[in-house]
Structures are given as structure tokens and as C-alpha cells.
Write a structure and sequence with these properties.
The complex is a heterodimer of chains A (256) and B (303). Chain A is an alpha/beta fold and 256 residues long. Chain A has 6 helices and 16 strands. Chain B has a single domain (6-54, 73-195, 215-296), classed as Aldolase class I (TIM Barrel, Alpha-Beta Barrel), CATH 3.20.20.70. Chain B has 8 helices and 16 strands. In chain B, the strands form 4 sheets. An 8-stranded parallel β-sheet of chain B has the order 3-16-15-10-9-8-7-4, with helices on one face. The chains are: A alpha/beta (256), B alpha/beta (303). Bound molecules: flavin-adenine dinucleotide, flavin mononucleotide and FE2/S2 (inorganic) cluster (FES). FE2/S2 (inorganic) cluster (FES) binds next to loops of chain A.
Chain lengths: 256, 303
Amino acid sequence: MEYTKSLYPIVKKEVLGKNIISMNILCPDIADAAEPGQFLHILPDGMTLRRPISICDINKENGNLRIVFEVKHEGTERIAAKNVGENLDVLGPLGHGFTLMPNAENVILIGGGIGNPPMLTLAKYYGNKATVISGFRSAECVILQDEFNRSGAKSVLCTDNGTAGRKALVTEPLKELIANENVDAIYACGPTPMLKFISAIANNAYIFCEVSLEERMGCGIGACLVCACKLKKEGKDVMGHVCKDGPVFSSKEVQW
Amino acid sequence: MANLSVNVAGVDFKNPVIPASGVFGYGREYEKLFPLSKLGGIATKGTTITERMGNPSPRIAECPSGMINSVGLQNPGIDAFINRELPNLLTKDTVIISNIAGSTIDECVSIAEMLDDTDVHMIELNISCPNVKKGGAAFGVHCESAEAITKAVRKATKKPLIVKLSPNVTDITEIARAVESAGANSVSLINTLLGMRIDINTGRPILKNNVGGMSGPAVFPIAVRMVWQVANAVSIPVIGIGGIDSGKAAIEMMMAGAKAVQVGAAIFTDPYAPVRIIDEMNDWLEEKGISDINEIIGSVNPW
Ligand SMILES: Cc1cc2nc3c(=O)[nH]c(=O)nc-3n(C[C@H](O)[C@H](O)[C@H](O)COP(=O)(O)OP(=O)(O)OC[C@H]3O[C@@H](n4cnc5c(N)ncnc54)[C@H](O)[C@@H]3O)c2cc1C
Ligand SMILES: Cc1cc2nc3c(=O)[nH]c(=O)nc-3n(C[C@H](O)[C@H](O)[C@H](O)COP(=O)(O)O)c2cc1C
Ligand code: FES
């Protein structure tokens, strides 16, 4: 199976922080096919367009996927209003995820705000070979730190205002790490300006780097060409599509 | 099973349901969900002579019961369509309708000539795309230009020719009559209505193109009305498009006079929409004891 669409029950729901919801969905067929960096396209009740949400954790044994999302407007509000036992209408798993490197010795995972959830699948994959740098606006926004710690990864917490962890942008610890250590790969998800800076740092240091992008979507599977983003491939400008070619792209091909 | 097969402009369809141009690509992504042979036909993404990159993102915004898009005819060009996509599509045991969208009459003529040498089943001439600056809808809003482009394309191909009409006009029946007189074998309608959304927190339009084409269930009553008007104004078959998201909506569109229907935005909500709609139409007909879908075409009994 590549992807499918069906109704799947919510088996666990938690509120992680201000407007941040975590849900576990029992969807064995999707969980079985899912890979780190892929996303689910979820239909809020009564709306026309689905909402793309990254997969935060994959548990193939019990057929569970976890998503963590921020309630923004009506669509995410309606998804958040669902409770354990109710079904979500899910199309997935979609997109091209992160490139996993079984021989990597030292990788850096960077999450900015609601870009942190997809980093958990990678933290679990790389364990103690990974350092997670997570950045948030302030202490109230901090999520997933216990999970990152349990994954065995080292973790560096930053906040913009210093109310938790270091008062720093994620790029500061990133620069320190690559100055002192041999880094095999950098993976990042978060606000576009953050991804742009990280890409520049990684490209200058010749370190393999992948970033997960966001774009508004229609179909979610590569048919409608709604989710276009500009890429450079073999020196040529091309239109990529976040839902199919991404959401994960090489830092070298994205045109910011 | 009720008989769902219909004939549009001499072409047999096993059922009247066709994914609309632009939402279905060339079928590859949806084939992973259901066999394309279940469909009555497929209208492919609008093709221009050379590759087009389309408009910058964001290209989509939601609205109550609908959406607005500004893709801007991104497509790989006619050569890529004919060489890379069409041969595969023609093996799928469904009617293939190639949608074309040049910015000049000459461009449309060249594309139609190239398609004439292929085994594509029908050509749908889009004179109604609101998302490109040149050509596009400009052809579709005046009778003279609609007639001229239809005439020219008509001469370039022997394939059954569908002309896709814009709803952004004062009187759609005039345009329909003009393209009929110019030799169109069928008309399809409606393309999208011009719309706009603004993010009130930033004061910026959501679409980078500022405006875009609105579609989805919200436009359904407009589409039904226009299909009804056009079906009463021309004698060529009408293909109904706009907001169809269920078997009942498809039946309603056919009662208004459509011989077949196309499904656009509904496929974003439910990727199985076209096949679900076919099943729902059959269920409805069986429930009513109607053995043939053709009995309901144009059967509305107006006051
Ligand atoms: C691949 C991918 C993965 C994502 N993963 C997560 C995640 O794990 N957690 C999380 O909280 N958010 C995630 N997002 C962002 C999330 O999709 C949006 O916050 C959400 O769609 C907003 O919906 P809404 O109805 O609340 O907002 P509205 O602004 O009302 O949405 C209106 C329309 O715009 C679209 N839209 C709005 N913001 C975005 C955005 N940032 N990206 C894409 N589409 C948008 C909506 O899908 C909808 O079609 C992801 C986005 C993408 C593209
Ligand atoms: C994303 C998107 C892309 C479209 N692209 C095309 C196109 O290339 N050519 C065309 O003739 N119509 C195009 N359309 C219009 C549809 O084919 C259809 O006429 C319209 O969406 C109304 O149907 P609906 O309400 O079922 O969506 C597009 C529509 C959407 C939503
Ligand atoms: S959302 Fe349709 S191609 Fe990406």
C-alpha cells in the first residue's frame, strides 16, 4: 500500500500546552507504511479541504500514529474538538519523508515551534547518535522534551525569551556543534526564515541537510499542482510540489 | 444495476462521471486508490504548447463549502502530454478527454493538430481559465472570440470537440450558441467563478495571484441554473460541472439537462468521490425503480 483514505479512531488525546493537541490514531495500514517526515491529510468535519499534519510518532506494532498540532483556525479547531473513540477521516501516509542514514554517527535534528513534532520520529530512529535542538517562543510553548530525552538523543532547548533553556535562536547551538564536531546530517522543520538560515549554514559547511516545508494543499497526493514550491535541480528552475516531492527537500534544492 | 452508460457527441461512456480537468492530473495518483476503468472518462489537466510553471504559491484558499484556486495552468506542455502521459492513459479503458488551453488561437490550433494524430477520444477546449493573464477566459467572455477560436480549432481536428464555458459572463446561453454555430460538438460548464479571499490579520490576499477561480459545493446552484439554461438553448450535449459532490447532486445536474458530469473540488474532500458518486447514482436509480440514467437527462419539469 502506498496510501489510503478511511475513518480511523482516536485512541488517545492530550493537551500538551496552549492550543497544542496530541492525538494517537489507530490506523494499522497507514502506520505500517508510514515513514519519518511523511504527513497525514485530515478532513475537518464539514469542510472542503483537508489539513496536512506531520506524523510525530510511528508505532507499527500497535498500529498507532501520533500527531501533534496547533489549533490555528476553524479546520484545526474542528479536528481538535474530536475526542477519544471518535473517528478522524485520514488520507495517508503522504509525501516524501526524511532520508535515513543507517551509518550516520552524528546527526542534528532541529525543530522550531510546531515544527518539533516530526523530529520525534527521527530522534527515535537515531537515538544517542542525535542531538535535538528545539526552539520555542517561551516556556509555555515548550513541548515533547520528555519524549526527546527518552529517545536517547541529546537535547538542547532554546527559547526566544529565555524562560526555558537557553535564550537563543536554534542557529546558535547549531553553529557551535558544527564548529566542534563532525556532523553527518542536519534535519529541520519549522518557520521558513529558520529553515532558510539553517540551509545556508549547512550548505556553507557542506553538511547534508534536509528541511520540511509547508504549503497550502488541495489533493495532497501530487495531482492538482496546488502546493508548488520553487526548486533548483541540476542548475534549472523547476516547480516542485510539497505534497509529493516533499514535504522534505534537500537544503540545496530549495529556492527561498 | 441500472444502466449508467451515456453517449456524448458520438462517444460512449460506461457511466456519466468524469473527474474534471485540473484536479486529477493524469490519473496516476488516483490510480493508487481505485482502478481508472471505473470512471466514465477522465478530463486531463489543461495543456499548453510548451511547459508552464503556473502562478506563485499560495494557490489555494478555502471558503464556506468551497475553495478558490490560482494554479495558473501549470503543465508540462503538449509534447510531454502526448509522449509521457497519453499512451498510459489510453490503456485504462475509459474515455480520455484532453483539455487544451492556449493563450492564442494559433496555439490552440497547433495543440489540436498534434492531438488529432493521437488516439485521444475527445478534446475539451478551455476558453474559460480565470487564472492566466493572456488568453484563457478572455476568449470565453465574448461571442465573437468564442466563435472564432472554436471555428479555428474545429478545422484543426476531427476529434469530437467540447468547448468549456466560463460562468463569468452576462448571458452564458449566447456564448453556448456561438460555439455551437462554430462547430462545437458539446459544451461543458461551468469553469470556476472569479473569487477572492483576504487574510484580515495581514491585509493581504490569501492567493499570491490575488484572485482565483472558485468552485466546490457553494457554486452548485449556479452551475445547475446555467446547465439548465444552456441545455434549453443549444441542441449539442451539455456536460455539467460545478460543485457536484454526491450521486444526488449528479442526478440533479443531469435532470437540469447534463448528459454527463465532471467532478472537481469534491475529490479534494474525498479522493474516492468520483467512484462513490457512480455508486450513489446507481443506488438512487434502483431505489426509484429507474432502469436507465438516460431517462432522467433533462427531465426537470419546470414551473
Ligand atoms: C506537510 C505539512 C505538515 C504539517 N504538519 C503540521 C503539524 O505537525 N502540526 C501543526 O500544528 N501544523 C502542521 N502543519 C500546518 C497545518 O497544516 C496548518 O496549521 C493547518 O492546515 C491550518 O488549518 P486551519 O483550518 O486551522 O487554518 P486556516 O488558516 O483557516 O486554513 C485555511 C486553509 O489554509 C491551509 N493552511 C493554513 N496554514 C497552513 C500551513 N501552515 N501549511 C499548510 N496549509 C495551511 C489549511 O490547510 C486550509 O486549507 C503542516 C503543514 C504541512 C504542509
Ligand atoms: C485546482 C484546480 C485546477 C483546475 N484546473 C483546470 C484546468 O487546467 N482546465 C480547466 O478547464 N479547468 C480547470 N479547473 C476547473 C475545473 O475543471 C471545474 O470546471 C471547476 O473546478 C468546477 O467544478 P467543481 O466545483 O466540481 O470543482 C480547475 C479546478 C481546480 C479546483
Ligand atoms: S496538493 Fe495537489 S499536488 Fe500537492
